[in-house]
Design goal:
It is built from 16 helices and 16 strands. The chain is of the alpha/beta class. An eight-stranded mixed β-sheet has the order 8-12-11-13-14-10-15-16, with helices on both faces. Strands 1-2-5-4-3-6 form a six-stranded antiparallel beta barrel. It has a two-stranded antiparallel ribbon with strand order 7-9. The longest helix has 22 residues. Bound molecules: adenosine-5'-triphosphate and magnesium ion.
């Protein structure tokens, strides 16, 4: 008897006693993922509007006599005359570790047939970025595993670094390599049992890409064991513009959860050019006035409110971070177009990729001269600064002299030395995709280069020599590599060890 009473009591307690008041309207116009409704006089800006068949929309335009809203998901069954109700809720997505290893749509619903996602928490998709007080400047590196980036354009946790370039110049590859490298570091770090180790979780947001490309990305991450530390948010080219518009914010909310809970996360937006185009489409359908390049007036805010949500939080606020790698596609290398200049001004630096370099076989095709990282060097570990501090300057000097030297053959000894070293530097920086290097290996290579161990090797053979060197130190000098990682600075003792290892390697490489 008691049991039954208890059960009834529990049922009564669980009943929702609040009367929800909802405002019902009618769809008067419907086109390309945008609906305009009459009668929704109480809708809030950004409120979720619910339609039949589990279709959701977001109220974006609150006009005097109608509400314009974008529709998410599959909206083929919706017709003019259908009802839409206010929900009193802002759009939110599931967050948490349960999403790692999963592929989801912009509402956080699974796309990968791996079962339901049982999230404990939901975060609103649109959120105000952390203010000034909780922030701290970047002080911890985020190793990409790409030698050129880690040495000359270092990225810190909490930084926003733009990857920009024409189509097919290796933009996505740089972002994916970074994700793969985080997974490699996570695996080793977590296995080592080090209490201070902080793994980096990744979120990859695919915006307007072909489904086949997204499938390839998933497969690549899976092959490299990186999927288990990654959340993929997919809004493919086949979906309507509203999904593409929401996707980065949804991904950002998932990344923010890690930051708010004192963890480190990395988010890739691939790419924001398509995002801006989707927003333009939505805005034109909502009949908003258009400005430069037919983009609506608030397209700057579109990206600034997104990228400002990446931050490095102070210890008082949990000490988490969210690093962002937005990607922008340029047309014929034109960085002065509207969207590229906007995003360049919001981020903390850019990695600029060039078609010419890519076609010459310089891969990654990074144009070092115009790539910068404005804050990352303060996060670079000391040993890296010791070997790479002067690299960018030397490279600039080399570029200038090399252009000049094309016209004359008799060069003075100093010029020749700079050009010879620069040629070798360019070769050393070449790196295949999907093969990130551990930080200690990167430092050793640069040390060997700076100390002349590659000087007497023919430029054409540098790639081969570098591979053999990497092989040698990872098999025969593991204690050296461990020491670099643990001491983080090249002391005299370490310098001697490096010298010995390099000399030993040189004997094997004839
Ligand atoms: P899209 O404009 O289509 O998005 P993208 O700029 O993102 O292209 P990727 O897809 O990353 O470029 O790379 C284009 C091609 O170049 C791919 O086939 C990739 O495998 C190859 N590639 C990229 N980086 C390297 C590299 N470092 N070494 C060798 N090949 C590379
Ligand atoms: Mg790409």
């Amino acid at each position: 008897m008691n049991e039954i009473l208890k059960e009834i009591n529990a049922k009564i307690e669980a009943l929702e006693s609040v009367n929800r008041h909802s405002n019902v309207g009618k769809v008067v116009a419907l086109a390309d993922g945008v609906a305009r409704l009459n009668g929704l006089s109480q809708a809030m800006y950004n409120e979720m509007i619910s339609f039949k068949d589990g279709i959701f929309g977001i109220a974006l335009n609150l006009a005097e006599n109608e509400v314009g809203c974008v529709l998410l998901g599959d909206t083929t069954t919706l017709k003019e005359g259908d009802e839409g109700k206010t929900t009193g809720k802002l759009l939110s997505v599931p967050v948490g570790k349960c999403l790692l290893g999963r592929v989801v749509d912009v509402l956080g619903r699974p796309l990968d047939n791996k079962g339901d996602i049982n999230a404990q928490e939901y975060y609103p998709v649109e959120k105000i970025a952390p203010g000034i007080l909780p922030r701290k400047s970047v002080n911890q590196p985020l190793q990409t595993g790409i030698l050129e980036v880690d040495a000359m354009i270092p990225i810190g946790r909490g930084q926003r670094e733009l990857i920009i370039g024409d189509r097919c110049t290796g933009k996505t590859s740089i972002a994916l390599d970074t994700i793969i490298n985080q997974a490699k570091i996570n695996k080793e770090g977590l296995a080592s049992g080090d209490k201070d180790f902080r793994p980096v979780y990744s979120v990859y947001v695919a915006i307007g890409q072909k489904n086949a490309n997204i499938a390839r990305t998933i497969q690549l991450l899976e092959e490299h064991g990186a999927l288990e530390y990654t959340i993929i948010v997919a809004a493919s080219a086949s979906e309507n513009a509203a999904n593409l518009y929401i996707a980065p914010y949804a991904g950002c909310a998932m990344g923010e959860w890690f930051m708010q809970n004192g963890m480190d996360a990395l988010i890739v937006y691939d790419d924001l050019s398509k995002h801006a185009a989707a927003y333009r489409q939505v805005s034109l359908l909502l009949k908003r006035p258009s400005g430069r390049e037919a983009y609506p007036g608030d397209v700057f805010y579109l990206h600034s409110k997104l990228l400002e949500r990446s931050a490095r939080l102070d210890e008082k606020y949990g000490g988490g971070s969210l690093t962002a790698l937005p990607i922008i596609e340029t047309q014929q290398g034109d960085v002065s177009a509207y969207i590229p200049t906007n995003v360049i001004s919001i981020t903390d630096g850019q990695i600029f990729l060039e078609t010419d370099l890519f076609n010459q076989g310089v891969r990654p095709a990074i144009s070092v001269g115009i790539s910068v990282s404005r804050v990352g060097s303060s996060a670079q570990i000391k040993a890296f600064k010791q070997v790479a501090g002067k690299l960018k300057g030397e490279y600039a000097q080399y570029k200038e002299l090399a252009a000049f030297a094309q016209f004359g053959s008799d060069l003075d000894a100093r010029t020749k030395a700079i050009i010879d070293k620069g040629d070798r530097l360019v070769e050393v920086m070449k790196q295949n995709n999907n093969s990130p290097k551990p930080v200690a290996v990167e430092i050793s290579i640069l040390w060997a280069l700076q100390n002349g161990f590659f000087d007497d090797i023919d430029v054409k053979k540098i790639g081969e020599a570098q591979a053999s060197f990497e092989d040698f130190i990872t098999t025969s000098a593991t204690s050296l590599l461990e020491k670099i990682v643990s001491e983080k600075v090249i002391s005299n003792e370490l310098s001697d060890m490096l010298k010995e290892a390099c000399s030993n390697w040189k004997k094997t490489f004839a």
